[in-house]
Amino acid sequence: MSEEISTQETETPPEACELTTMLEQEFPGAVTGFHSHRGDETVIIERSALESVCRFLRDDSRCSFEIMMDLTAVDRLEMNETPRFEIVYHFKSLTHARRLRLKVRLAEDDCKIASIHHLWKAVDWYERECFDMFGIVFEGHPDLRRILMYDEFEGHPLRKDYPIDKQQPLVELKEVEERHVYGRHA
Amino acid sequence: MTDMTVLQSRSEDASTGEDFSASVMSIEIGPAHPAMHGIVRLTTQLDGELIVGMEAEIGYLHRGFEKESENSKWIQVIPYTDRLNYVSPLLCNIGYSMAVEKLYGIEAPRRAEFTRVIMGEISRITDHLTCLGAVAMEIGAFTFFLWFIKAREYLWELVEEMTGARLTTNWTRFGGNAFDLPDGFLSDLSDRLAKLKEVLTECDKLLTRNKIFIDRVKDVGAISKEDALSYGFTGPMLRACGIPFDVRRADSYSVYDELDFEIPVGSTGDCFDRFLVRMEEIRQSISIIEQAADKMPEGPFMTDERMMHYPDKKDVYGNIEGLIDHFKLVMEGHQPPAGEIYMPTEGGNGEIGFYLVSDGSGDPVRVRMRPPCFNFVAAMPAMTVGHYVADIVPIFGSVNMIGGELDR
Amino acid sequence: METDYGGFKTTKFDSVVNWSRKFSLFQYPFVTACCGMEYMAAACSHYDISRFGAEIPRFSPRQADVLWVVGTITHKMSPILKTIYEQMADPKWVIAFGACASSGGFYQNYSVLQGIDRLIPVDLYIAGCPPRPEAVLDGLVELQNSIQNDGPTANGITPTAIRHKDQKADQLNRYFEISKKEVFENLQNPKSNRISTPGFTYSEDFVNVSPHIGYDSPRMQKDKAALKEK
């Protein structure tokens, strides 16, 4: 089906890969993959290099990524890919008018990663949200607790193995008679 | 606790030398506080009326947008996006549809793009009207609020003409829009914009040079440029600090590069600057709408790509390809090619970024919306500590926290 | 002022009192989400709810008659809603405004309460997502009629509702009767692990987390027990 739709993937202009080459030179061995699908430059790095790479991205004048746009994770359980989690960082540079996506892959039984809250102040709450939704532990975070769910909630909702409507009510709820019944009458 | 900065108690310089230090009182400005602003719990530590510490707790409207999207088809997510930033729903619709179009790698036809610009800017105006109206009302200028809500009604009637709903529009589709311009829409548009400009001038006379208002909002909630960037501010909040970053100019999308508009920029980043920036943005949006309405091209409003648009009924019942396309689209949904993209667009509050991950099947793997006001509320303590309790109202109002977007 | 709600007898005095009650409703708008925008629109000058007497929102539950639950209520918010409802003095009415407050709306997931009537008794449901201001005003008029005819709620359910319950049940049964042939089931995402189908709400194994705040918390239970001893 997708062959009939023209993908019109643009040729990645040479400047877009400049960041990747720069990172590969500065941090040899840290970059494990990159792509530039639809023009979004993406670099996959090793977990151990995260803090130094982020500091480089913020401070070096060739990059100067002042804004940390987004910090989230992707659970790749249903795509049958290991390692299971992929932490995704989006950065924006105003001086160079450039964006970058940084990805770090984490295995399910070892989902800990260094926190970068000391580099950008926005990271604090985003890391809390990532912990709340996926269970990723950010080491060094001053106050890692749930932000969108309540503290008594057990489990991490955005993981693929959390059933979507498993509810954990906080207050004793009344049973309401079923309003209507769809589906097969078994 | 994070973000608690305890200042020295003032009463320690009492002349008798005794330490009358009042203990710091902890008060919760709890989730159920007066309407208009959604639900956030602000736990404040007060020394008399001075705020010495604050912590914001969110999540009271977490409705599981991302989890629900993973359990829907790509097109079923569009109604969920309406309810993200529910004062400017069309901007969220547009942002999401453009993100999926980027996944596919196609563009909507020009007429659709121009219509999207018009509806998006109308939505941006309603966002600013609601925000400024609420700020004014909570400071006490109730007339301003009523007039702005009346102006918002004019715009909502326009939105209803186009999309069928006032608030939850569900109007864009992948590759175009669901509905084209109705007859007489453009003339209605110019009438309403004229009325809106009248309301704007009157309201401007009410507040912009009003000493009472200025005293409440000037130098309140200021934040420096470096802090704003570090906190990830975007949108009117960042522009009020003096940084002219607008996604419509910086990462230009749709047909914004053909339209001529200015980016209003403040200087100090306090509440008054944010108010002025938003008022000016309303005027700029009106100008954009007028230009887009003038340049409106003829043509299709939906792409012709197979498996993107629902075929006309005469094709569905007429020939076998239409039937099969319709059947497959309804049963299996859209199937964008595998990949991941991030599409930044300018929402009412700032940069709405949709990060979508697709694996080639019809089921989304990850639909993520980057919420602009998440950063603002995270910075609330930094903006409020050191001010008085009465200053929480203009600061929180100017932040324009929208619960649906903050908690998703 | 003898009123017997069991037999629904009311006196002339009652009808005057109810008349004054219905035209001076003090609302507590418990606004959470998008419906709040339509609530604002209904309350402002274009649609003007104050011509029905329900003009001022009272932001203290002690001073309010009608609790307008506007918007989605999540589980995190439910103890707060319960507390606010308990703090209101009788007579009080509850309006479930919008689809999310009535039944959870189209959010059927881990965090949304599937209808506030699981928590507090509701007198009026206004459907819509969000309901048009005209629907809001229509609902308010219906509530006012119910206040006039039946007075304050007794045991959390209006006499109208008691009278109409059987009628309504018959109506619903007839409406939702599905014939014996196979019903087309919504093709959900095959990878989804949704454990309840539409029409059912809770799965068999939902976890009832012990509440630690609000009305049913251990602390409140102790207070209630202490009061009972006296």
TrEMBL record, chain C:
GO CC annotations on file: plasma membrane; respiratory chain complex I
Residues that bind [4Fe-4S] cluster: 34-35, 100, 129
Cofactor binding, per record: Binds 1 [4Fe-4S] cluster.
Highest taxon in the source lineage: Bacteria
Primary subcellular site in the record, as a coarse category: membrane
InterPro entries cross-referenced by the UniProt entry: NADH_UbQ_OxRdtase-like_20kDa (IPR006137), NADH_UQ_OxRdtase_20Kd_su (IPR006138)
Broad EC category: translocase
Keywords, ordered alphabetically: 4Fe-4S, Cell membrane, Iron, Iron-sulfur, Membrane, Metal-binding, NAD, Quinone, Translocase, Transport, Ubiquinone
Any Gene Ontology biological process: aerobic respiration
SUPFAM superfamilies registered for this protein in UniProt: HydA/Nqo6-like
UniProt-annotated location(s): Cell membrane
Function: NDH-1 shuttles electrons from NADH, via FMN and iron-sulfur (Fe-S) centers, to quinones in the respiratory chain. The immediate electron acceptor for the enzyme in this species is believed to be ubiquinone. Couples the redox reaction to proton translocation (for every two electrons transferred, four hydrogen ions are translocated across the cytoplasmic membrane), and thus conserves the redox energy in a proton gradient.
Record-stated family: Belongs to the complex I 20 kDa subunit family.
Subunit-level organization: NDH-1 is composed of 14 different subunits. Subunits NuoB, C, D, E, F, and G constitute the peripheral sector of the complex.
Name of this chain's protein: NADH-quinone oxidoreductase subunit B
Organism: SAR324 cluster bacterium
Gene name linked to the record: nuoB
